[in-house]
Amino acid sequence: MEGYAGVSCEGGIALADAGLQEKIKHSYPEKYEAFMKRREYMRKILGIRVSDEILPMGNADAYYKPFMLSTKALAVERADI
What residue spans of the chain are helical by DSSP H? Predict the structure, then answer.
């Protein structure tokens, strides 16, 4: 479709088992807290089932565009909180 190079999904994730998460928590406590806040937001506000092994690295990890090929629309489904 003219004007679109394709879709994009912003941000990235890290995969870490419980042991690695403990190491991150102790070595980088501020970064670990940011991972936890982002994951909780994705679960509770956006309603995305994110496994415990996923550490969202950015604020746009769940941002996917274009929605219905519109440059002016974005869809969000909010979970009951």
Answer: 18-27, 29-44
